[in-house]
């Protein structure tokens, strides 16, 4: 495919911020320096580590969503590096819980599979926040196939996820957000892969330890 539309982002250190105020009170956001992106990039981490906040800020910075729809000022502190090529289409799919809470029907008004297979046509830049919500494992595999078809049509996907199925996408960049900051990790080193593998391979032993 062509070079990714979004090549990198960096925190503008020339702008002062209060480390005690959201979103800079989140360690991973406060310690953000620069990130580079590939055709498929994942943000992983526990709840509250800043995955959605960072994804939302990228969406606002790139004018994929309106800045007044964001929950922080982070987009104002981000510098972005882009290619000269512009995507034909963009889409931001927020977290399902946030959508239900805020009644964002225009973004979550159709099922994810319909979005992937019928609405999105490719050569686009797509931001998804935990798209695995309400999808069974088999449906996640179908979604992964649909995402791959979009990648083959020169698309770029940036996804916040907890799904070990999605994280297995070949050659994807995976960034882990935690109290130490943000760092790139391999799929085999994600907690999602490790815990799922150990549970599936040794279910009796895992349950014996957990339920003692």
Can you lay out the helices and strands and say which pair or pack?
Blueprint lengths: L5 E6 L15 H4 L3 E3 L3 E5 L6 H11 L16 E5 L6 E5 L2 H7 L2 H4 L3 H8 L4 E6 L7 H16 L3 E5 L3 H4 L5 E6 L2 E4 L6 H11 L1 H8 L2
Helix pairs in contact: 5-6, 8-9
Q: What would you say about this model in short?
A:
With 212 residues, this protein is α/β, with parallel strands linked by helices.
Keywords for this structure?
34% helix, Rossmann fold, alpha/beta, 212 residues, 9 helices
The pLDDT mean sits at 89
The outline comes out as: globular
Architecture (CATH level 2) name: 3-Layer(aba) Sandwich
CATH class: Alpha Beta
How many structural domains? 1
The share of residues in extended strands comes to 15-25%
What is the end-to-end distance?
Answer: 51 Å
H/E topology pattern: EHEEHEEHHHEHEHEEHH
Main sheet attributes: strand count, strand direction, barrel closure: 6 strands, mixed
- The helical percent reads 25-40%
The low-pLDDT segments are 97-110
Strands of the biggest beta sheet: in what spatial order? 5-6-7-3-8-9
Class from secondary-structure proportions: alpha/beta
Helix count equals 9
- The total beta strand count reads 9
Radius of gyration: 17 Å
The CATH topology is Rossmann fold
């Amino acid at each position: 495919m062509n070079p990714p539309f979004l090549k990198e982002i960096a925190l503008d250190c020339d702008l002062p911020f209060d480390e005690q105020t959201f979103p800079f009170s989140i360690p991973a956001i406060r310690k953000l320096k620069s990130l580079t992106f590939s055709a498929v990039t994942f943000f992983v981490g526990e709840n509250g580590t800043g995955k959605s906040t960072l994804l939302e800020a990228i969406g606002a910075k790139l004018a994929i969503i309106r800045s007044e729809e964001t929950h922080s000022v982070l987009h104002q502190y981000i510098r972005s590096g882009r290619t000269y090529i512009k995507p034909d289409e963009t889409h931001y799919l927020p977290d399902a819980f946030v959508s239900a809470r805020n009644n964002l029907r225009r973004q979550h008004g159709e099922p994810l599979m319909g979005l992937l297979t019928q609405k999105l046509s490719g050569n686009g830049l797509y931001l998804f926040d935990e798209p695995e919500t309400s999808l069974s494992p088999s449906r996640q595999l179908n979604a992964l196939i649909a995402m791959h078809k979009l990648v083959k049509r020169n698309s770029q996907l940036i996804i916040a996820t907890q799904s070990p199925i999605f994280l297995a996408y070949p050659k994807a960049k995976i960034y882990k957000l935690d109290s130490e900051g943000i760092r790139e990790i391999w799929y085999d080193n994600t907690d999602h892969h490790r815990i799922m593998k150990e549970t599936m391979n040794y279910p009796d032993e895992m349950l014996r330890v957990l339920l003692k």
